[in-house]
Design goal:
By secondary structure, the chain is mainly α. The chain has two domains: 96 residues, DNA polymerase, domain 1 (Orthogonal Bundle); 177 residues, hpI Integrase, Chain A. 57% of the residues lie in helices and 4% in strands. The chain contains 14 helices and three strands. A three-stranded antiparallel β-sheet has the order 1-2-3, with no helix packed on it. Strand 2 and strand 3 form a beta hairpin. Helix 1 packs antiparallel against helix 2, helix 2 crosses helix 4 and helix 6 packs across helix 8. The chain starts with 21 loop residues before the first helix and ends in a 5-residue tail after the last helix.
Length: 329
Amino acid sequence: MGGPVPARQTGGAPPPRAAEDPAASRDAAQDRFERLVGDSVSQLRELRNLSPQTARGYASDLGSFASWCRREGVDPLRVTHRELRSYMAELAQARYAGRTVARRLSAIRGLYRWLLREGEVEQDVAAALASPRLARTLPKTMSDEEVSRLLDVCEDDELGMRDRAFLELLYATGARISEVSALDLGDVDLGQGQARLFGKGSKERIVPVHRLAVSRLEEYLERSRPLLAARGRGAAGKALFLSTRGRRMSADALRTTFERRVAQAGLDAGLTPHAMRHSFATELLNGGADLRSVQELLGHSSLSTTQIYTHLSAQRLKDAARQAHPRGE
């Protein structure tokens, strides 16, 4: 007969499981969080029709928060209100501008609202975070003399004609730089003196283009754009403003062009294309335009956004009061 049969185990505790590595668990949570950030940005871009630049900024702000969580060993899907406050305090101590801190807070709030809806977190811990108090600053503007100096540095070659047309159009319409970049040939009606702009959320508006800007655009379209388009070998398509390679100029390329011309003109290096937009709005208000009309021309969804320009028109208001008040003289 054979040897004894080993006894069968009929019970007892299962063999102990290997202890979970806390560091590996945190890394896995971080990886998952970063994937969720990407998903939320993609969904937000589709729902709100965000521009690529806005979507990149949103992703960058959330990426900075994710990096902080990884560095501090914080699980962002189980983050506490206190930990979020620590992150905001660190931004303030690092002397980030108040608007930067407020923008990052807004991105984090939006993300955690989305995570709650998706069932990825049990509560929205970011909802109760207090926004930093921001000092209201007036936007930079350019005087008509500064605009003239900017235009005067543009040469009479194909790039100079292009840049002059771009700058005149920017000043004539108060358009955002992204709106100018998106312009196609068919969006500008030189005969009618108007342009069709597509603003935030692809909202369409028609804006007038004054005669001087029309003449600069005609010059560019007749003498410059064909030369630039030839360099692209068919890549130009319907784009209005073309690069030296014959392709549509991106918003970044137009911004760089503006900054280069500002430097050539010896103007304040802090001026941006948005200063032209601010100048456009201020000049309209100084000229007597009503706030609602300026709002429509700028493509603002809220009148309160336009109202900041009334501060820049203080001199007009003082003059009106001086003329109308019985003791104004």
